[in-house]
């Protein structure tokens, strides 16, 4: 589903952020991406979401080589992705419902279809009863769940999250991770960047570790024997 083939990224400043990264993520896998600050996690996600382009190498998603994507095609490509940010980027001048409906506004859905899809997404994250509220009155965990509902409202094949639990306490973080697991269980490919190693260990999923732009680990740490 996702393939990085010898990918290098050097920013215009001359900073090397990724070096010769190769990896493959199958459809319906759930994978964590970890590493210290500055290791290249966000850069890898930016290449996947076509916010940045690789300096060398290929990023292939769903059989599509992103190097061959024209700028005008990028919005269409992104419709297959759900993107969750740490600070959820909700708009506080409109309701929870309208925030979740945003990605549908460009897709030409009828009003009725928008209502159906938004309510289905809010139901999945347990916030149907808050659709008319302004997100500013919600707790941090609830705001993040609205961000997740917005990311999945288009039923994307791939869900990408950059530090989605960064501001949350351990219990709320676990709830958010459980949500990601639910979406994964119904076939969504999920890639989550996080530096919360304890939380990652509890999830017992595949882990990719970056260090100074190199992929230094790809495996299942929790399945290995403890010494
Ligand atoms: N737009 C940019 N221009 C120049 N250098 C950048 C840019 N974005 C990131 N970098 C640099 O690239 C390297 C990797 O950064 P990146 O943000 O991908 O790391 P990260 O693992 O996501 O870190 P964090 O956990 O702190 O978000 C760092 O040295 C960073 O300073």
Low-confidence stretches: none
CATH topology of the largest domain: Rossmann fold
Helix content: 25-40%
**Tally of structural domains:** 2
CATH architecture of the largest domain: 3-Layer(aba) Sandwich
The named CATH superfamily of the largest domain: P-loop containing nucleotide triphosphate hydrolases
Bound molecules: adenosine-5'-triphosphate
Name the features.
30% helix, ABC_transporter-like_ATP-bd, AAA+_ATPase, Rossmann fold, binds adenosine-5'-triphosphate, 7 helices, six-stranded mixed sheet, ATP hydrolysis activity, 227 residues, four-stranded antiparallel sheet, alpha/beta, Cell_div_FtsE
Helix and strand topology:
Layout: E1 2-10, E2 16-25, E3 30-34, H1 41-48, E4 56-61, E5 64-65, H2 74-78, E6 81-84, H3 96-101, H4 111-124, H5 140-152, E7 158-162, H6 170-185, E8 189-193, H7 197-203, E9 206-211, E10 214-219
Parallel strand pairs: 3-8, 3-9, 6-7, 7-8
Antiparallel strand pairs: 1-2, 1-4, 4-5, 9-10
Bound molecules: adenosine-5'-triphosphate.
Adenosine-5'-triphosphate (ATP) is lined by residues 11, 13, 15, 17, 35, 37-43, 195.
Domain ABC transporter: 2-226
Function: Part of the ABC transporter FtsEX involved in cellular division. Important for assembly or stability of the septal ring.
Main location: membrane
């Amino acid at each position: 589903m996702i393939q990085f083939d010898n990918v290098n990224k050097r920013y215009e400043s001359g900073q090397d952020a990724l070096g010769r990264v190769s990896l493959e993520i199958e459809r319906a896998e759930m994978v964590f991406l970890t590493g210290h600050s500055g290791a290249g996690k966000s850069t890898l996600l930016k290449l996947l979401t076509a916010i940045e382009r690789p300096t060398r190498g290929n990023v292939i998603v769903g059989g599509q080589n992103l190097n061959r994507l024209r700028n005008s095609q990028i919005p269409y490509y992104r419709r297959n992705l759900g993107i969750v940010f740490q600070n959820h980027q909700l708009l506080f001048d409109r309701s929870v419902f309208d925030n979740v409906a945003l990605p549908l506004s460009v897709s030409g859905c009828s009003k009725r279809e928008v209502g159906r899809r938004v309510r289905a997404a809010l139901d999945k994250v347990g916030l149907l009863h808050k659709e008319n509220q302004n997100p500013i009155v919600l707790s941090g965990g609830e705001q993040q769940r609205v961000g997740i509902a917005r990311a999945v409202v288009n039923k994307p094949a791939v869900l990408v999250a950059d530090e989605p639990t960064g501001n949350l306490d351990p219990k709320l973080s676990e709830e958010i991770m459980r949500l990601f697991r639910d979406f994964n269980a119904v076939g969504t490919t999920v890639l989550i960047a996080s530096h919360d190693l304890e939380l990652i260990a509890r999830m017992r999923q595949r882990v990719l570790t970056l260090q100074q732009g190199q992929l230094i680990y790809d495996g299942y740490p929790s399945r290995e024997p403890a010494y």
